[in-house]
Amino acid sequence: MLYYYKIKKKRRFGAKKQLAVACMSVLLWAYFYPGSFATVVPKLNKEALPSLPASIAPIPEHPKPKIALKKPVTRLISLSAMERAKKELEYEGKNREAAELNYNLVLLKKIDKGGSASSTNSKTLKQDIAKTISYFSAGNTASKSAQILWNYDGGNLAYVYYPNYGVHFNPVTTANLAMDYYAKGNYKKVVKIADELLDNATVKEYPGVGKYYLWQYCFDLQFNKYNFPAPWASGMAQGLVLDVVGKAYKITGDKKYVKAGEFILNSFKVPWNEGGVTDTDEHGNWYLEVAATNKLHILNGFLFTLDSIHNYYEVTHNPKAQRLFMAGVNEAKSHLQQYDLGYWSNYSLLAGDRASYGYHKIHVDLLKKLYDITNVPEFKTYADKFGFYLKNRFIDIPPTHPSFQAISTLTERGVITSTDGWFGAQTQISKSEFVRWLARMRGWKPSTYYRGYYADIKRDRADWGYIEAAFDNGVRLTDDKGLFNPDDYISRADMASILCKAFAVSTEKNEPDYFRPELKITREQAANMLYKLSSRGQL
Question: Which PANTHER family does UniProt cross-reference here (predicted)?
């Protein structure tokens, strides 16, 4: 442990000796005390946080398709032709591609048994199968990652290649494509996409509601422990398509889009378990991103849906849209506390389902926007809280983590920063990163005039200013070749040397054998070191 010693005035250099003792004692304390930052704890890996493939976040820029089709398939093909295509893939030894095509053929037979009510889904799936055949016949192979296919086969809908499922129409991705065109002023393309979306809607009826439009996903969805069979609908898809239809009306003034909007709005009045997308309680309506269950209640998809309904209302002033929007607002403000983990936000209501950095940021942005629209205080409260977490907390460092206090304090002080929301406690820390932390702790501003103290630290490094500022303050870490070696991981001995140089303290005394100076330091250990020194007035 660190102890405070009262320094007598006549011992002029006592403070430096005290610091040397402090540096050594912190390292020894870390090594011997269980539960300290020197104790090796199980590494918390950056798990694959849940997200729906290509169907959640808006896509600001669309890449060019990485495919060159030989013979684009622009019409539906017969079941026998589909079977022949599968056999050709098998004959060519493309077994995985054949398996993905077969998955869709089996699914098509199941949907066809549903009778006339499933005719649109059957049509959509047949289009998906045709696109899958076209995709593989062009030389593309089955892969482990999804790929968005824009303007596929010359059409206006967006398709996505999904591992194990083949190529499928995605209404959310298509709507996002339309929004991208709208932002760029390509209004003709927006109208074309809106028209093709309406042509591919499933038309249903519900007692007391009447006719409504629905867009469904024709592939199975696996989400954590849940498996939702195709077809399944999405409130987020309904909302985004509604927004596109509203923009088509704004562009053209054609009342057919207002009529179509009425049918889309009707889908929000149908319960999720009876063919709609809405879960209702005493507070209001929750529009389900995955309308195959009411167990998830995915936050970002719901907030996107509210934003989309409001966008449509702004164009049409439809009172039904206003009522549906306010029913969602009342529901949201009543349940936001369920998504507050005290250091991060939850993606859904599933336990431990923390949002990724990107989705957490989406929560913040959408809550701010909804507050600007409604002035509902709950939106501002949680936008501010989640925004604070975004800047000062980490996904993998909950309040129960033994180093939560140290890491959080240093983050709030601006010593530790992150661009992806992860801290990586057991990741080894590099020399350059530790020097950055130390410089911020000591208040050393980055140099603005490049002097080139080290041969391997050029101006193109983002942190050269911190490294040269440390050099100017006595932390000179040149090896025998004049190199800094910024990416080398530092050891205990390195850290002790750096801290002592920062305070001009002698390190002549030999460390005991059990100090293990060669052991590398983790980011957690480095954070604890700086925190404990700063809390005792050393930094």
Answer: D-GLUCURONYL C5-EPIMERASE
